[in-house]
Amino acid sequence: MKIKKGDNVKILTGKDRGKSGKVVNVDFKSNKATVEGLNIFKKHVRPKRQGEKGEVVQVFRPLAVSNLMIVCPACGKATRIGYAVDKEKKTRICKKCHAPI
Ligand SMILES: [Zn+2]
């Protein structure tokens, strides 16, 4: 998994294609990431008790990681990630400007 919580990502497919946002949650099991403010779906909640009103809540649906591209904080471009290994420490780097991410 190349994407981490807190990363800025760009969405490549779907209705929010081309938009970017911050990763708020990563699900390693399903290879999906939830991006803040994107891929919003409205969920209708039925009233639980009589007299209560039903509500519409907004839910951020997770997106497949393969449909996301990381946005490099140094050059601001959507990029692929490379790794630089330095004395057993692995650093993620931007493939375009080689800045650590
Ligand atoms: Zn870069």
TrEMBL record:
It holds the Pfam family ribosomal_L24. Part of the 50S ribosomal subunit. Residues 2-29 form the KOW domain. GO terms for biological process: translation. It comes from the Bacteria. One of its GO terms (molecular function) is structural constituent of ribosome. One of its GO terms (cellular component) is ribosome. Gene3D superfamilies: 2.30.30.30. Belongs to the universal ribosomal protein uL24 family. Keywords: Ribonucleoprotein, Ribosomal protein, RNA-binding, rRNA-binding. CDD domains: KOW_RPL26 (cd06089). Coiled coil: none annotated. This is Large ribosomal subunit protein uL24. PROSITE patterns: RIBOSOMAL_L24. One of the proteins that surrounds the polypeptide exit tunnel on the outside of the subunit. One of two assembly initiator proteins, it binds directly to the 5'-end of the 23S rRNA, where it nucleates assembly of the 50S subunit. SUPFAM superfamilies: Translation proteins SH3-like domain (SSF50104).
